[in-house]
Specification:
Elements (H helix, E strand, L loop, with lengths): L3 E6 L5 H11 L3 E6 L8 H9 L14 H4 L4 E4 L2 H8 L7 E3 L12 H28 L1
Parallel strand pairs: 1-2, 1-3, 3-4
Length: 138
């Protein structure tokens, strides 16, 4: 039964950070990392998670550490580029992939961008809940 989950995306600034936040809030030991981490967590990711009562403002983007990755029970890639990059890594850890759109790439008004982050946040929440329910059934 996976108890330690590592969420991986490219920049580790939005999708994987939100997934880490939800999993931790649901009682899972969770981590996140990026194959090419950004400087900081995206402010709109922080904002939409706060709407759910989850504070990810203290989280920071981190590079994918292969030695650390070997210590988790499950790796979840949340973007196609990270999935492709992780497929080539010699990791003895089960991996699943969630193909989630990058809300940071959405252009437009603040409200349009917030809507994109909320949509991805809600999909991540649904998937994390399903994953934890599946883990608990094992």
């Amino acid at each position: 039964m996976p108890k330690r989950i590592l969420f991986v995306c490219t920049g580790n600034s939005a999708r994987s950070q939100m997934a880490e936040g939800f999993a931790k809030a649901m009682g899972i030991e969770a981590f996140s990392a990026g194959t090419h981490p950004k400087e900081s967590v995206h402010p709109l990711a922080v904002a939409v998670m706060a709407e759910k009562g989850i504070d990810i403002s203290h989280q920071r983007p981190k590079p994918l550490d292969l030695e650390f990755a070997k210590t988790v029970d499950l790796i979840v890639t949340v973007c196609g580029e990270a999935d492709t990059e992780c497929a080539h890594l010699p990791l003895p850890v089960p991996k699943i992939h969630w193909d989630l759109p990058d809300p940071a790439k959405v252009e437009g008004s603040e409200e349009t961008r917030l809507a994109a982050f909320r949509q991805v946040r809600d999909e991540i929440e649904r998937r994390v809940r399903e994953l934890i329910a599946e883990i608990e059934r094992l």
